[in-house]
Each structure stands twice: as structure tokens, then as C-alpha cells.
């Protein structure tokens, strides 16, 4: 039995693949070093991320997988559900073990798992792009927080960079404690010393402009007027806007007073 540990990065996980092939010792488990629990039986192999080794693995995959499959593999990494590392390893091992295209081989559990994980992350990505709401602060920064089930921030920043290219903004993932900041030129990942509060009231009252408060109130008034009680369909509404996303939406917050 072999437990491999790594630093939690995608490059680190690819380095694990390289090390496993070099040692000819297949992992029975792969865990991030900060949460790994070494077992009584078997060996624990701590892998240090190596850019050259990870690139060699990735280049090998580029020769065997389509661009779509490469994206699905990365999405599975961002999926972050228990055991995702071993799913990725088994997929890569299968790809390296044959000259045939494995992407449609759904009899292999890892292939089906990768496709399902990628679909779930893709769905969460689009919901974040649709439901994220920015609040304008007194220092002219548009701020939003997210709390997604999966680590979608790396794949949504391109959308927001293109859509809001003319304004400074920041999106912070309160669950994973990191964010993205756009300064009108480049988008960079950031961390904050203090974790922001959750919910629409994430920013202190004094940090929000009066104009922002007015916009939120106008939107709530508009929503109330276009909402037709006789046509309410709660089941359909929940299907399109699941309740866990309501915390991002102005129209779902307590009504602001003029």
C-alpha cells in the first residue's frame, strides 16, 4: 500500500503521477499533505512539486487526449470531492497504458467519473457567472463574494475580466479563503488576512456607496412590480435558481427602506 502526499496544486498532483511511474509503485491513496493521515501499514511517500516533471506528464497527456478531455481532467481537479486525486491518477494511467483513445471508454469507472465531475463543475461555473452580484465600495471597487460547492474561481475569472474590463473588481471565495482581483490591467489571485463575512451584508455599511444602496433598492422595487403572484411556480423557480444561490441576489434580501 502506498499513500502519496502532495501540496494540493495541480502541478503537484501531476508530479505524483511522474513519481509513481518512476518508482513503479501505484498509489492506493493520494492526499494533500496538510490533511493526510499516514496509515500503520504501507509506505507514505511525500512528493515535492517539480515543474519539469509535471510538464512532462502534461505534455504526454496532450499527445493522447483531446483539448476537451484535458479540460475535463483539470475540472475534475477543481471538483475537489473526496478521492478526486485517485480518479485523475487512474484516468491518466489508463491513457498512458494504451494507444487507443480512452475518452469514450465509459466501461472504465475513472472515465465516467471524470466526465460527471467535469459536468458538475461546468454547471456550477455557469451559475456563478449568472448569480454573482457586485457591490460598489466607497473606494470605487466592485466587490463580490462566492461560496461555491466546487473550486470554480480559476475558471470564472476570464468571464468577469472580459465582461467588466472597464472597472476594478474583486471576487472572494469565502469557503476556500482566496480571491481574484482585477486592477484594469491584469487579474491576480489574492488572499485576505481577515475572512469576510458571508451573505449580501458581507461589507460594512460604511464601505458601500449610497449609489449602490439606491441601485439595490430600485432593483428590489422593480422585481416586486414584475413579479406576478398568480403565476408563481415555486418548483420551477427553485429549479432555475436553487435556494443556495439566493444569498447572492439583491431581490432575495430584506427590503431596503428609502
From TrEMBL:
Pfam family, one: DUF4130
Domain of life of the organism encoding this protein: Bacteria
Start and end residues of each DUF4130 domain: 85-251
InterPro entries tied to this protein: DNA_repair_put (IPR023875), DUF4130 (IPR025404)
Protein name per Swiss-Prot or TrEMBL: TIGR03915 family putative DNA repair protein
Species this chain originates from: Pontibacter populi
Classification lineage: Bacteria, Pseudomonadati, Bacteroidota, Cytophagia, Cytophagales
Amino acid at each position: 500500500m502506498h499513500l502519496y502526499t502532495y501540496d494540493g496544486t495541480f502541478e503537484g498532483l501531476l508530479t505524483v503521477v511522474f513519481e509513481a511511474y518512476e518508482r513503479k509503485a501505484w498509489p492506493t491513496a493520494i492526499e494533500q499533505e496538510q490533511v493526510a493521515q499516514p496509515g500503520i501499514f504501507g509506505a507514505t511517500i511525500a512528493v515535492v512539486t517539480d515543474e519539469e516533471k509535471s510538464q512532462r506528464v502534461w505534455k504526454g497527456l496532450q499527445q493522447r487526449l483531446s483539448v476537451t478531455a484535458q479540460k475535463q481532467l483539470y475540472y475534475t481537479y477543481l471538483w475537489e470531492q473526496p478521492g478526486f486525486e485517485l480518479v485523475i491518477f487512474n484516468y491518466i494511467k489508463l491513457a498512458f497504458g494504451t494507444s487507443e483513445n480512452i475518452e469514450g471508454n465509459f466501461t472504465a469507472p475513472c472515465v465516467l467519473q471524470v466526465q460527471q465531475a467535469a459536468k458538475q463543475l461546468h454547471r456550477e461555473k455557469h451559475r456563478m457567472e449568472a448569480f454573482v452580484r457586485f457591490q460598489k465600495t466607497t473606494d470605487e471597487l466592485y466587490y463580490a463574494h462566492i461560496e461555491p460547492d466546487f473550486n470554480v474561481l480559476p475558471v470564472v475569472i476570464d468571464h468577469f475580466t472580459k465582461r467588466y474590463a472597464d472597472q476594478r473588481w474583486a471576487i472572494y471565495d469565502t469557503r476556500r479563503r482566496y480571491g481574484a482581483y482585477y486592477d484594469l490591467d491584469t487579474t491576480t489571485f489574492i488572499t485576505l488576512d481577515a475572512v469576510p463575512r458571508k451573505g449580501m451584508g458581507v461589507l460594512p455599511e460604511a464601505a458601500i456607496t449610497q449609489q449602490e444602496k439606491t441601485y439595490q433598492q430600485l432593483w428590489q422595487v422593480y422585481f416586486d412590480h414584475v413579479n406576478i403572484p398568480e403565476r408563481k411556480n415555486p418548483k420551477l423557480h427553485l429549479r432555475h435558481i436553487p435556494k443556495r444561490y439566493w444569498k447572492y441576489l439583491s431581490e432575495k434580501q430584506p427590503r431596503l427602506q428609502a
